[in-house]
Amino acid sequence: MSHTVLVVNDKTLQKMKNHYGVPASLPAGAVFAGKVDGCSVTGYRSGKVLFQGKNAAVESAKWDGQAAVSKPKKASVPSENLPEGFSAMSVIGSDEVGTGDYFGPITVVAAYVEKNRIPDLKALGVRDSKDMKDPEIISVAKDLLKIIPYSLLILRNEKYNDLQESGMSQGKIKAILHNQALAKLHGKIAPDKPEAVLIDQFAEKSIYYRHLKEQKRVIQENVFFSTKGESVHLAVAAASILARYAFLKEMDQLSEKAGFTVPKGAGPAVDKAAARLIRTYSESILRHFTKLHFANTEKAKKIVHGFS
Ligand code: MN
Description:
Elements: E1 3-8, H1 10-20, E2 30-36, E3 39-44, E4 48-52, H2 56-61, E5 69-70, E6 91-97, E7 106-113, H3 118-124, H4 134-147, E8 150-155, H5 157-165, H6 170-189, E9 196-200, H7 205-211, E10 223-226, H8 234-258, H9 268-280, H10 286-289, H11 296-305
Parallel strand pairs: 6-9, 9-10
Antiparallel strand pairs: 1-4, 1-5, 2-3, 3-4, 6-7, 7-8
Helix pairs in contact: 4-8, 9-11
């Protein structure tokens, strides 16, 4: 049985408790426990949250990437050894946004930061986007767009739902998007070449390449993987900022179409917003706005139809 562990702060633990509920009896040390489709979730006083079952990765991904979440100290995915002086090298970094959000697309960006641009990027305020609020991300992104080569891919909801329903895992979808963004950017900067490529790690290396078996071109030369890639090289931080900026713009467009602000994440606010869309339009509209396979779809339907 597959499992995933997240370590979260008190605020997120409380949010998760509200989300998953508290059963009549709890394991020792636990503060909440709940079941969703294909996954049982148990949260402990220590901040550790255990996801078990075939949908453990999908369910935990909904909480991963939220500002309040911290990864366990010992990352479940090991980072490989990077060359010495890596942070000062000319690097293409890639990162994605939106995988844990019920509403909105997945955006993936590959960004090229040449070593002589590193001081400029630092001066611009480029750093780990998890420490930045949206308005700052937007303003830094607007400057970044003008000064570094990048490539952006947006996988909108209909297409995502098609792929997901065809049996493709979110991990494979992400791998394909990263590889495509990297290939596009290599083309853009040619004949220049980066000294290395750093992918913000979401899967083990062997699994990443297995996902890419059917791809025509696989970027493999000098490719490294690291969790918390933003703190390893500014190229990943830049990619992350641009991916979030693109995601925010897409969310603005979706909000305009919906007629109200569509919320981020995958918590109760999201269920209510989806219910509002069903009431205003119809259930089928969710395909255009959301990642349908998330448990939020069923929760929204329950809100509308008034039973649980
Ligand atoms: Mn990432």
